[in-house]
Specification:
Shape: elongated
Strand order of the largest sheet: 3-4-5-8-7-6
CATH superfamily of the largest domain: Trypsin-like serine proteases
Radius of gyration: 28 Å
Structural class: mainly beta
Largest sheet: 6 strands, antiparallel, barrel
Helix content: 10-25%
CATH class of the largest domain: Mainly Beta
Length: about 600
């Protein structure tokens, strides 16, 4: 079985030079085995050096319309390291003409064999590089019934890209069937839970080890902004760096092409582009790589295609700001600030990753603990989305998932592209387990009349076994149906997962999404709800009441053909706010007269 190739994008842990004029190029049709040439890249610091290569052949139609030039390289450290991750984008010349960008190496290679992306393909796909940031157009997404992303957010569940888009998780490097090219990103080494959020994207994490983080010193040498120079693309910057670095292939005026392969293949993007320096090279039997570090901002990445990425020098990218205030049980207060890539698919993942990495850096991984979070997400033109959550267990990533899920529901709404003005979170960590379970539920009336109140006795029990009682009074409306009703008592997330009100998720605008998230049931509250069923059908996510069964069977829900059924609906509820996490769900029947 052939070994899966690897992209040469290196982990990354600000100087502007005049751009060069357009370079003469050589098409693939003129290449022949045995032809020799030179490439340009940075092996150490910011100085551009050369390496040699020999053309072994051309693999045509590697994918429809795309070819790969196979070469054997030599020079510099390559005899010991093989092709290095970080050489991705290194311009390669024959007779002074640019043939393409070195973009692919091979895992466990015994000699420096690599692949070059033809420059003609890069120029073709990246010639429409925009000078300005992408237009903020709405996402074209189906309106689900109920919306899959929104319902998951109400349960506090973040959906990986693979789950969201119905794609398969990317196999690990070396696994059978591993056909996707790996992308190496570092900063703070990502935990497995964080890496799993990227499943489904053309992205794989290689283990760069603890040495992958290299602090940029005050005298670090920035690579020149010309073909062969190092550059870095920031996904997250601030108190945590998450960046991908590679080599500049082509510069023309303010436009610069890099990598020879995709970042995510997202099309139009808006990301910080930095000059970079190489602290050193790490030789590995599996994948050797450069230790690169960003030095100074030089522009913005504006286009992300399968054959490369393109940026504009001097441009200003727009990022999403995130502030996290961390209170460690009153002993210490920390304040962190980050800026993240602004994209509907990627930003929610990055928010979840940053929150999870921050907590895992400062909150214990063993022993009892409780984390409480409050904050807000601000969107231009809409009310702030208020955030409140408490978790009491050994998994702080539940908080990260909760925030990421909220962002996912907002960013991926199908109505309008939200402009995130900022996210602010305050998280308090306590060295105790603030957890309460719902132990018992008892209605204090055997029958309740319409227009009356149903008192419900709820017994709560903490982890020490201490019990306490509280009475929740549920108003029963005059519009309630005579007969049986379902009484459900539980925490907010359990009730949301049980979906007691099938009519609740009915949205037709971003305002509706904001309203629904702000009204979401909390997991530090105990709720008592009365539920009854009534007939109904749906069309594009909205219920249509009182239509004949024959018509209902044709309409269904969102065009389905079998939704002429009884629909659950909350007719009354009561809430008991608590300052600790509540868990449990108990369901009973009651009679309404």
């Amino acid at each position: 079985m052939p070994v899966a190739p690897r992209l040469l994008l290196v982990p990354a842990l600000l100087a502007l030079t005049p751009p060069l004029s357009a370079q003469a190029t050589m098409p693939v049709s003129e290449l022949r085995p045995g032809m020799k040439g030179t490439g340009r890249t940075v092996f150490k610091g910011g100085r551009i050096e050369t390496f040699d290569f020999e053309v072994l052949g051309v693999q045509r139609n590697l994918s429809p319309g795309h070819s790969l030039i196979l070469v054997r390289a030599s020079g510099g450290p390559l005899a010991e390291t093989g092709i290095l991750a970080g050489m991705s984008g290194s311009p390669c010349y024959i007779e002074g003409k640019l043939i393409g960008a070195l973009s692919i190496g091979f895992a466990f290679e015994k000699e420096p064999l690599g692949g070059i992306t033809p420059i003609g393909e890069m120029l073709e796909q990246l010639r429409d590089l925009p000078e300005t940031s992408p237009v903020r157009t709405p996402l074209i997404l189906p309106k689900l019934d109920p919306p899959k992303v929104l319902k998951a957010a109400l349960r506090g569940e973040f959906l990986s890209y693979a789950t969201l888009m119905g794609t398969s998780p990317i196999p690990a490097l070396g696994d059978p069937g591993a056909s996707e090219l790996p992308l190496v990103i570092s900063g703070t080494p990502l935990l497995p839970e964080a890496q799993a959020l990227f499943n489904g994207l053309s992205l794989r994490f290689a283990n760069a080890g603890n040495g992958a983080m290299v602090a940029a010193g005050p005298n670090s040498e920035a690579s020149p902004i010309e073909p062969g120079g190092m550059a870095s693309i920031a996904l997250v910057q601030g108190d945590m760096d998450m960046a991908a670095s590679g080599t500049i292939t082509y510069v023309s005026g303010k436009k610069v092409l890099l990598f020879g392969h995709q970042l995510f293949n997202l099309g139009g993007v808006d990301l910080p582009l930095w000059s970079a320096s190489v602290a050193g090279n790490v030789a590995s039997y599996q994948n050797s790589f450069k230790l690169a570090q960003p030095i100074a901002p030089i522009g913005a990445l504006r286009l992300d295609r399968s054959v490369g990425v393109g940026g504009v020098l001097g441009a200003e990218p727009r990022m999403v700001p995130l502030r996290i205030g961390l209170n460690l049980g009153g002993r210490k207060t920390l304040d962190y600030r980050f800026e993240m890539m602004d994209h509907p698919f990627i930003t929610p993942i990055l928010v979840s990753v940053v929150v999870g990495q921050t907590l895992n850096a400062h909150v214990r991984g063993l022993g009892f603990q409780s984390l409480s979070m409050q904050g807000n997400i601000k969107i231009a033109g809409h009310p702030a989305i208020e955030i409140e959550n408490v978790i009491a267990d050994l998994n702080p990533n539940r908080l990260a998932s909760f925030v990421g899920a909220m962002m996912q529901a907002l960013a991926m709404n199908p109505f309008e592209r939200p402009v995130f003005e900022g996210i602010s979170l305050t998280i308090k960590a306590e060295e105790r387990l603030d957890l309460t379970g719902i132990a018992a539920v008892r209605p204090l009336k055997a029958h309740v009349k319409r227009g009356e109140t149903l008192p419900v006795l709820v017994t709560l029990q903490n982890i020490q076994g201490v019990r306490e009682n509280a009475t929740l009074n549920i108003p029963v409306p005059q519009s309630a149906q005579v007969g049986k009703a379902i009484l459900m008592v539980g925490d907010g997330l359990s009730l949301s997962a049980a979906d007691p009100d099938e009519k609740a998720i009915d949205v037709s605008s971003l305002n509706d999404v904001v309203r629904l998230l702000n009204g979401a049931l909390r997991n530090n509250h105990a709720y008592a709800v009365l539920v009854q069923t009534q007939p109904g059908a749906g069309l594009r996510g909205s219920r249509i009441e009182g239509i004949p069964p024959s018509i209902a069977s044709l309409i269904g829900a969102d065009g389905g053909s079998s939704d002429n059924k009884l629909v659950r609906h909350i007719i009354g509820r009561a809430v008991l706010p608590l300052e600790r996490e509540v868990k449990g769900l108990i369901t009973l029947e009651v009679e309404i007269d």
